[in-house]
Amino acid sequence: MGTWIKRSFFVCAVFAITWVMFIAYWSGSNHMPDGGDVLLYLLVLPACFLLAVWGIRKAKLSMASAAAAKAAAAAAQPAAATPAEPSHHPERLWTLAVAAGALRSPHGADAAALLEKLQAHEAKLELDPELTDGQGFPVLTGRIADVDTQTAAAEFMAWRGRHASAEQDDAYLPDEQQRTLALAADVARELGDRLMSHPFLDEYLQAQRHQKDAVGLPQLHLLALLPAAWSGEARMQAAQWLAQLVTLQGWPAEKITVLPAIAGEPAHPLLHLDRLIATSRDANTQQPSPYLATPYLAIVIAAQSNLGADIVQDWERSKQLLSGSSPSGKSPGEAAAGFILADATQAIALGAEDPVLLHRATLGRKNKSADEAGRVDGDLLTALAQAALRDAAVPADAVALLVTDGDHRAGRTEEIMKLGYAALPEIDLGSQCLKVGAECGSAGAATVLAALALAHAAADRAGEPALCVSNDDAHERAAIVLTRKNSHPHPITTTAEHSPEATAAQAATA
């Protein structure tokens, strides 16, 4: 509705300006216009101008779509050793149920609280009491209050002392690393508590060793998404420590498998989630139903704190820090988010009677950095969002909320506006679009999963689909849809779904 109002205002403005110009000209030159003058200058001329504007815009969109399709196809080539699968492949219909979620953010200790504050416009960044820029001014940050870093650091160091080499025993943990571990530990314990309600857990713990395999307790896969700046070994150690925290809650240690996030792989957080969905089934079964023959259970935890003096200095040196000298920079933040993902049977067993489903993600990469000056290209993100909606069989007008990990930087904002204009015309970007990075600061993968947690909370509360897109990174773009299990949206069959840019973008993750 807002789009049509803007277009109507533009048309009225063109006619009004044309009329005022020519009436003023005729009045000043004492010229009495005849019927031909009125028809030509007051009707035909503004109409031709509007047609020219429309034609130029269509030509630019056509050229941009072709460029986006080439960029998405180029991004897909190194990611797949075999030809891309068609967009209608049955595997794209696979989902996992979100059995539980947990969130730690600067404005709330759960997704529902943060959702309410963002929708009420009550969340905002604050001047940090500890961090300053090179000129001594406090930095605008998203800091979580009352983070128990000392306890978390002591527990982690004690665990590492028992499992790591002597050289690492006394390794110093920077403040931001301690905060990351503390936030991740909180989420791990909360999700671990939710696992204790599994109906087969007590039976498994009480069974004799030779009888345990007969109990239907599933293997738990744990994936920890920690700062990319950490070494691969440090990230694996932290993931194993988080697994131990889950076992301390009561889950059997032999029933946990820590999944390594490859240290040297620049994989997007939503790509990791998409891989969990892709590996949750046997590809030969082609089973789209969320009820699986083989049980599947996974925990995903992402945590990151960018509240460190060294990080602030690095961002300021590279002009990434929001400051008076760099108004287009970003604000450091911290967050932790996690999910229990399962097949529908396991989700119901854990108490989620009508769980939200996580659909397949679509991902792509922009050749030009979003931080560079020049025209903002929003076609790739739009194509990814359309492909994600098509995979989930959700019509665009059914989406109730758009959540992004981006912030208020002009390039990211314009990209979201173009997405809303092209793919979600019914969305009111003023009230139905939430920008996590703008109000909570930048925290890497944790910001992405925090945005996903908000989309999950909204879909769970309202029962309507939510779209989560990622455009905070300079190059990486992604989109994913969450829907209620018992909602049955109508399949999308419009020709716009099969546009070249959408097909090429989806091929990157097929």
Explain what this protein looks like in three dimensions.
The chain is of the alpha/beta class. The protein has 2 domains: 2-76, no CATH class; 90-507, Peroxisomal Thiolase, Chain A, domain 1 (3-Layer(aba) Sandwich), CATH 3.40.47. The chain is built from 16 helices and 13 strands. Strands 1, 4, 5, 6, 7, 8, 9, 10, 11, 12 and 13 form an 11-stranded mixed beta sheet that branches. Strand 10, helix 13 and strand 11 form a beta-alpha-beta unit. Helix 2 (35-76) packs parallel to helix 16, helix 6 packs parallel to helix 8 and helix 12 (379-391) packs across helix 13 (410-423). The longest helix is centred in the first third of the chain and has 42 residues, at 35-76. Mean pLDDT is 85; it is low at 75-86 and 488-510.
Quick rundown:
With 510 residues, the protein is α/β, with parallel strands linked by helices. The protein has 16 helices and 13 strands.
